[in-house]
Batch of 4 targets.
Target 1
Amino acid sequence: MRLDIVMDKYKKLIHIIGPHENKREEILSCATNALRHASILFKFEKGVDIVIFDSEEWDIHPKLHISGHARIYYIEIKVCHYKKSFNFENFIKYELPSTIFHELSHVVRANTVGYPETLLEELVDEGISCYIEKTLGLNNNLPYIDKINDEEKLINEVRKFFDLKLSTKLHNDWFYGTASIPEWAGYRLGYKIVESFVNKHNTPLDILVGMKAKDIY
């Protein structure tokens, strides 16, 4: 099949609302390429819509310019273009493609193993997405997987909650932090779990994205 026909297939799945009216074609091209490459890498043939829209500064973490959310059939990406630290070149080159790879990983897992129901499943789910971003070198600015203090102590602590049914509080405690749990600990610990597994088994990414959490941990 001709490349232009293939690209048009993915282009039709990208929806841009609001941001940078004079940059829409550049955003569209970047998102289309990222979706195509990620779909090929994960061997995911099912189409998924991506909506990219401008958002308020308070709706995105202060250390980031972009946030993503995935469901079984779509990806939602929020961007804050008017933050003083926002750099359009970095957004196009690193942040947008990295976020699409991260979120498509969630979509693939939702379509294969299902949505996370326990804390362990959520840790591994996020860990796989973060591992993909890191190992592919899509974005060097990934503060949510930076090394944190007392990681061994934290992994021993989080084990106690592995089998608990996922709730808003349980998720927020481990992924957004508390007085005793560092911010983004869940992302870092999930990443380390996945990294350890892949280093031991040399698992291809297209296999990794469809594996059950209990088989990875």
Note: The mean pLDDT is 93.
Target 2
Amino acid sequence: MTDRRRRREALQCCPACAASLGGRSRGRRRGRRHGSRPPYLWLGLLGVVAALVPVAAMDGPDGASVAVAAPAVAAVPPAVPSPPARSPEPPRPAPSSRPARPPVDWRESLAHGTPNGGSLTGAVRLPQEGPGYYGYDPATQRPPGGAERQWGTAALVREVIELGVWWQATFPAQPRLGIGDLSRPGGGPFTGPVVGHASHQNGLDVDIRLVRRDGTEGPVDASTYDRARTQAVVDRLVARGASLVLIGPSLDLTGPPGVVVRWPNHDDHLHVRFPDPDGTGN
């Protein structure tokens, strides 16, 4: 009896030994029949499979399945074409400058007596034209104003210039205001030769043309005047402290009683009086 046979018979003493011997024998025969494969081939195969799966399932702390997302790839927005460059706008012309205030030979002036019986010292002459106004001669009804007829106190001349500035700023598309008689250089009686006045003697009175409805500068009366814009002039004069505004009986103008007063022969102009700031004249 050979040694191999004796060992086999010795291991068959119980079923467990026989099973152990048979299992090892079969495993060796099976391994020899199919051949052994190196373990690193299996590891490489598993790595390829894992790379192909975008989301892996993992167990969370509570045993539930948790999905782990693969890293997102940022989307690249399509290129937007730049708008065509605009051609530069042509420069806008600068607004025309308004006429400068005219030079005035300012001096200390005094109104004496009353407008109907007074005189004037230190008279100031109103320039023939300025922003928003022009002078005209009532005798001819045309510019310029009479050289001996446009004198007043410094306060009155200043009010007339300020009225023109206001008019131009308020009604820039309208023609200028026409300014008629003020007083003579020394005040006193204001007679003819063609047009005279009972007042206008101490430099506190001024005549102002009504505003024409057709937007021109020239003679005007109740049938051709612009009521709304002439009323705006009256309101401005009252707001500035005029003590008297005489209007013709045919004019549809209004104002404070005792200040805006209807008077004959004033359907073509306003007769305006400002109080004497020094208190020497009325």
Note: Residues 110-273 form a domain with the Muramoyl-pentapeptide Carboxypeptidase; domain 2 fold (CATH 3.30.1380.10).
Target 3
Amino acid sequence: MKARLNGIVALAIGATVIGAAGFAPLTPAQAQPPPAAGQDSGRVNSQDAQDSGRFKNRDKDKDGGKDKEKKNTVSKALAKPLKAAQDAMTAKKYPEALAHLKEAEAINPKTPWDEHLINEMYGYVYAHTSDFPNAEKAFEATLNDPFMEQADVPARVKVLAQINYQLKSYDKAIEFGTRAVKGGYADEEIYTLVSQSYYLKNDYKGTIKFVQDYVDNEAKKGQTPKEQTLNLILSSCVKLDDSECTSRALEKMVTYYPKPEYWGNLVLTLFQSKSQNDKSLLNTFRLANEVDVLKRPDDYTEMAQLAIEQGSPGEAQHILEKAFQKNVFADARTQDKNKRLLASAQKAAESDLAALPKVAADADAAPTGDKNVGVGLAYLGYQQYDKATDALSKGLKKGGLKYEAEANLLLGIAQLKAGHKDEAVKAFKAVKGDPNLERIANLWTVHAKQV
């Protein structure tokens, strides 16, 4: 069993994890705020500076403009260095601007508006010189003072989230990102940033919760979650060594991105289930064969043996013929072994197929549906899907079945292979009472919607 589990898929889960957190990092340019050193609040008015030595806030509220203008006026002592700083910023002479700002900062006393304007200008200069620690400090100070316009809060929160991410201050990046989410102004970049921050600080449970909530909201809006977003959940589950979480994440992956590597890893988790029995194991093989992730010679051999044992020699013949067509059996010994098994399957299938009409008649006369289900299984193995559907439907209608869950599963497979997708999905949804088969049926439903 262990050998098959290691080889059934082309990629192991570990390989899936490699790229799971592979979001492109934010660039310094993205972390820089728009020019905010007073262009809309506290811009240096040169004429005012010449005439009165004061900076005035150009914004006025609706019913207190004069009072606000008076309150938001730069102190006379700071007018000259701040004007010089403003000019240097406009000329992109950031070291010179910084020197003038430090000059202004050293002047006391300062009003709260002086402090606000200095921090705005500091933030702008530091951001444009990639001094993110000091930019973060300055911009956070302005966000928390009473002069920040509410209309400017979303952009400032986003900048702070970005800067803290650059600084690997993941807790603060999460704090500001979450504020944007709760405020209703988070964009995709913010969601990505917060998700990555949780992951990079090794809070995998936090990653799963945050990203899953985001994915659920996307689904409610009819939007398809990005592959890298789902991969982040998958990677977190693997990091937690949580097999159930990993399996659920892989189901999401194949639902939206049915790539062979995702299907292969998902089928791997089915084989790893400790509650597998021969019936569920054969049905796992059926699903693996359908999505084309059977890889090792032993997989084909074991599936054929199980099919013969459970009354489907036609299926055994088909799977072995497929293996030989794909040149799965490389060495002579394995080829000889499976040639003998194929000959045995062909002989059994020939005898079984000849007897099927009489067996079907006897099944129709039986009081319960088990024999009809057996006939349906046989026809399914011979790829006579309409006859399989008819026999399985009769068996289910009669009732009294020993394995009703499997009968519904087989009916769904037959209907899907016959091209009746909607009916197949109904049959898959009717699979109840066996957790392993329920899960397999759910995956057949996912696959049915993709073919």
Note: Residues 15 and 223 are 27 Å apart (CA to CA).
Target 4
Amino acid sequence: MNGNLFTRVVDRVTGRLGRFISWLTLAMVLIGAYNAIARYLGRFIGINLSSNLYLELQWYLFSLIFLLGAGYALKENAHVRVDVLYGRLRPKARAKIDMIGSVLMLIPFCVFVLWVSWPSIHNSWLVREGSPDPGGLPRYPLKAVIIVAFVLLLVQGISQFMKDLQVLRGPDEDAEEADDDAAPGPHAGGVGI
């Protein structure tokens, strides 16, 4: 699979996952609103309308949004960045910084998390870990999302690295600007205003 096809496929999958996650955000907000209303209404009428299931479902949805949204945030350049000088740099300089960050930080961190979290997730699946709270949800499927999320983030990081490499291999901005300066403008040969 060539680089452009790889990045297009990864970006398409990440984009679709990001749109799906936006709906999970709506579901999480609705469940949170129901929890709050049910808790206060239940106290008022003397009937328990809420349960740990709804609370945990809200937490699980937040976890899914956070974990699965990391790759989408990277793709959309919506992640946290300390932007003191970065925004003023030329595209090739930004690509170099992003590539160094990917090689030194992002990719090793993803591999490290996958390596460190695997035993805990594997054990959780072996015992079919559940919630310690009555009426709670099973925890082992959610823990498996850690593996999925960091694999997706790793693949998106590789895709971003490949796109940055394309920027570096592209034409030099300084040469383009010099060509633009040397090229006659629309008023060449005429009277300037």
Note: The chain has one domain: 3-79+88-171.
